């Protein structure tokens, strides 16, 4: 047997789905050497998650990635547990945007690879050992040829059945699925479009695409989640569809069939020393309304700059631990709202009074609609006192720009000098390798930036500090970006 090949890197990312690829790009922006391994031969060919929410669109724009997506379909209307909900909130990307996961993965793979991430397909993680100063992994490459990877940190982005999580024994409490939704993409059928239609026997969804393929989703009230060793068979989908709607789709050609249940779980710790987790490897939830994908992508953006700073050296003490502190709380909240939606969506006739009340509140109470829309879109996420920096038009010495464009800083933070203060700029100069300073003023009303003289923004787009004066700014720079150099 040939000797195992070996590679050394800063970070080993396990999983090349959207979350792993997003993380790889973020790590490379921050200067961390990154190897990504995935057992699949290439990006997914299945439609799977296809919804990007407003906060994710902001992030993609701040990385300069939106132009490559072209003009994806936009739908202002979403839902909460099958109850129609207008997701429109202030900002340039209201509502939800439909991008097939195949395209999302393709885009992020090109981006991460272009930044220098070492992406290795057909490489499956087999063993891992966590040492005091490194993580040592054994990976089976094409043909079973072993590869030994030594990394300073490893991150599991390998889905709800995470191999890295299993190999490290990370504590992952939760609940097995009780109910499930069957779904399929089917060619050659003619059924009416349905949007979470509740019928006496169950709930049905049908949406015909421009290519003639229809996505169907169905749940028969009272049906329990199956104990599945493999994929669901289309025959089961067709039988459930006929039971609920009375329509026969069995002659259609299934292009993709699966099921997803209302299981939920969350890691006790997103970080265990040199091993971290993001996306579905960190939290398991029913993928209602696209929240699972968006939650995972935002995990990656929160983690990437912090982990890159850690491996570069000079990161402030405790910075990497804020990944768990911040994102575990966000994940817990999202899992809670998804569990509520699952009850509303898959519950039988007994849920109708609750659904009627919520429908009335959404219709008659704008603050209820805005609260739910903010929760689903991710625009209301905050980390303690740290809110996201809203998209704002700005005037700079170079011309018109925006907060989103200015965050294209190559992994660095952003300090906005809104008072044209030479002292502020001079005080920030020792952090120029980690923070870009820009003199700017709002292009319109002061709006969300308030009347502060300076605003310090983390690379993930959240405000670290607002205030006046070089001394205050220096304290904030030190707290989030380490000591001056």
Global morphology: globular
* Count of discrete alpha- or pi-helical segments spanning 4 or more residues: 13
CATH superfamily of the largest domain: FAD/NAD(P)-binding domain
Helix content: 25-40%
Low-confidence stretches: none
**CATH architecture classification name of the largest domain:** 3-Layer(bba) Sandwich
Description of the structure:
There is one protein chain. The protein is an alpha+beta fold and 485 residues long. The protein has 3 domains: 5-174 and 265-377, FAD/NAD(P)-binding domain; 180-261, Alpha-Beta Plaits (2-Layer Sandwich); 386-481, 3-Layer(aba) Sandwich (Glutaredoxin). The chain has 13 helices and 30 strands. The strands form 8 sheets. Strands 1, 2, 8, 9, 10, 11, 19 and 20 form an 8-stranded mixed β-sheet that branches. Strands 14-15-16-13-17 form a 5-stranded antiparallel β-sheet, with helices on one face. The chain is globular, with a radius of gyration of 24 Å. The mean pLDDT is 94.
Annotation keywords:
32% helix; five-stranded antiparallel β-sheet; FAD-dependent monooxygenase; FAD/NAD(P)-binding domain; 13 helices; Glutaredoxin; eight-stranded mixed β-sheet; FAD/NAD-bd_sf; RIFMO-like; 30 strands; Alpha-Beta Plaits; monooxygenase; oxidoreductase; 3 domains; alpha+beta; globular; 485 residues
